[in-house]
């Protein structure tokens, strides 16, 4: 099956789209992929919807900004698909996996809000669209996240990775998928990823993100601040757990210079990853860490990870498409969904049993 998968992450950079060949179990091939960035006005609309979601915290009437945000999401996803399918090697897709734009994640209340209109997308593309992939897991008492682990396991098999191997995805939030020697899979959100660093840079009016880790490279880590941030009870919780990008405030670095604050928040992201090793169940030195997501483009973060963890590789060095693994994952989940295969598990989301999920929209 040839499936188009989408991911629009909490970094609000744009929409990733990737074509995957899969039967929902193995990975047999890769079609083209692209990232279509949000324009400045599109991003403003999405930021406003996110701020309104956080302010309402899921209570009361639906914020008016959601409708405009959903128009933006729809338009950008359709444009991304058309650009992708115009490529000579795109072929014909049979299915779409659509994530939507997360604006609020409150799993303790069985709530996760993704904006988007999968039915309208199915009409526009003329292909069935699988969406609402988190909702059954949340309703059953799971965290609704992370959902990519089952794809990480398939990708590890495709790449011939020796176990134990850990996929570390560093996006707005960082999450880990740990595949033990016996093939068992555990996964959870680790910590803040790039989200806090992006917020810092944007709040101080010095850009959208710490490009190339230049700010962090020029700064000095405040270990006291890192220790205070790591005192959050989140890091002592075990088992399945998930975060919203905005769960950690910027207050802790308010008194630091731009460079020192960036260095400190980068070190905080790494410290959260180091702390997670206690939950992995194998000797810490034995793990092979594969880093995907935007964080792998930050050489300061990658150097800190290598110093702390040992064997660390960018996913690209193993032949994977590190910028598109999450988009591929939602293509894979869509294929599993239409076959009635499980997409979340007790060891990944904390659901009481392996859960199928997803709703197919046909327009």
Polypeptide structure, described:
With 363 residues, this protein is an alpha/beta fold. It contains 11 helices and 13 strands. The strands form 3 sheets. The protein has a 6-stranded mixed beta sheet with strand order 3-2-1-4-7-13, sandwiched between helices. A 5-stranded mixed beta sheet has the order 10-9-8-11-12, with helices on both faces. Strands 5-6 form a two-stranded antiparallel sheet. Helix 5 (149-159) packs across helix 11 (325-338) and helix 9 (258-276) runs parallel beside helix 10. The longest helix is centred in the first third of the chain and has 21 residues, at 65-85. The chain is globular and about 55 Å long. The two termini are 20 Å apart. The model has no long low-confidence stretch (mean pLDDT 95).
Going across the major beta sheet, what is the strand order? Answer: 3-2-1-4-7-13
Q: Report, as a whole number of angstroms, the end-to-end distance.
A: 20 Å
Helix content: 25-40%
Q: What is the alpha-carbon Rg in Å?
A: 19 Å
Mean pLDDT: 95
Give the helix tally.
11
Poorly predicted tracts of residues: none
What is the string of helix and strand elements?
A: EEEHHEEEHEHHEEEHHHHEHEHE
Structural class: alpha/beta
Condensed summary:
This protein is an alpha/beta fold and 363 residues long.
